[in-house]
Design goal:
- The chain has two domains: 195 residues, Lysozyme-like (3-Layer(aba) Sandwich), CATH 3.40.80.10; 68 residues, no CATH class.
- Helix content is 38%, strand content 12%.
- The chain has eight helices and ten strands.
- The longest helix is centred in the C-terminal third of the chain and has 35 residues.
- About 2% of the residues have low confidence.
- Bound molecules: zinc ion.
- Zinc ion binds next to loops.
């Protein structure tokens, strides 16, 4: 739990982390503070925009839509890695989400992933007051690539926020880990992203991966203990997992006429619940039937 950084403080943190920042208009005071709380903050959330073209994307995340007014995030991380700051304060990015996830992020108590969310936009708790939000320019179709410069900027931005607050990498989540009706950022493995943020946080803010850092000499390599997956295996498993999550992803139109994407797991969870409910109903019917047979036998 922490008070949100000031606009000046976030700029300092981002630039110290080697991020190229563009300030868009009156971003320091462009927010939704009149509509609700901003802070205390507990984490930072990564999204994809479902747009293409940087200037168009900056306009959308700054101004929003008639049904969803902007700003839609704090900063937009473009394909080339430039971060366009469009708002500061409460912004319309996280919507409703799972209170268990909020607890786990606040305590940084989860393993490689928080518990899959079972609450979303309509029935969850307010995330716009509790998370910094970063929209990343990507079509979200599972095909649009994530260029290296953009991914590197995503890692640096998350590390900058964590470093400024003294948080670990488990304070960073994807929108799909927060809300049961979201799939973003599609194509990015959040456990891998957190591992990369954690690695950055071991080094000074100006660290460039690959460059030698004499102040922090590497420890001698040690053999991994048995049954511990290597970093490569873990990356592969994480990539497979995020692919599996999006397989069978279906689009529905919700009550407000908004397009909502559900991952396959969302449906599986509902089917499981329906099956359990049916089992309970069946047991009740059986009980009544037994009673009825007993009554008939007596008469
Ligand atoms: Zn999102």
């Amino acid at each position: 739990m922490a008070q949100p950084l000031s606009a000046a403080a976030v700029l300092t943190a981002l630039r110290a982390e080697g991020v190229k920042v563009v300030e868009v208009g009156n971003w320091r005071t462009h927010n939704r503070n009149a509509k609700g709380a901003w802070g205390p903050v507990n984490g930072s959330m990564v999204h994809h925009t479902v747009t293409s073209g940087t200037s168009k994307t900056v306009g959308i995340v700054r101004d929003g839509y008639s049904s969803l007014p902007g700003p839609l995030c704090h900063g937009m991380i473009a394909k080339d890695g430039t971060v366009h700051m469009v708002g500061w304060g409460r912004t319309n990015h996280a919507g409703g989400g799972d209170p268990r996830v909020l607890e786990q992020v606040t305590a940084e108590s989860f393993g490689s992933r928080p518990t899959p969310p079972t609450k979303g936009n309509t029935n969850g708790v307010d995330g716009n007051s509790r998370f910094y939000g970063w929209e990343c320019e990507n079509l979200g179709d599972g095909k649009d690539p994530w260029p290296g410069a953009q991914y590197d900027a995503i890692v640096r931005v998350q590390a900058a926020i964590c470093r400024a607050h003294g948080w670990g990498a488990r304070s960073v989540i994807g929108h799909l880990e927060w809300s049961s009706d979201k799939i973003d950022p599609r194509g990015i493995s959040m456990p891998t992203l957190r591992a990369d943020v954690a690695e950055r946080l071991k080094h000074p803010a100006n660290w460039s991966p690959g460059a030698s850092t004499p102040s922090t000499p590497k420890p001698p390599p040690t053999a991994p203990p048995k049954e511990t997956p290597t970093a490569t295996t873990e990356k592969q498993i994480n990539a497979l997992h995020s692919n599996l999550l999006t397989i069978g992803s279906l689009t529905e139109i919700d009550g407000k006429g908004e397009r909502v994407n559900h991952a396959a797991g969302y449906y599986l969870a509902h089917i499981e619940k329906d099956t359990t409910d049916l089992g309970v109903q069946l047991a009740r019917i059986e009980k009544k039937l037994d009673a009825l047979i007993a009554t008939l036998a007596k008469s």
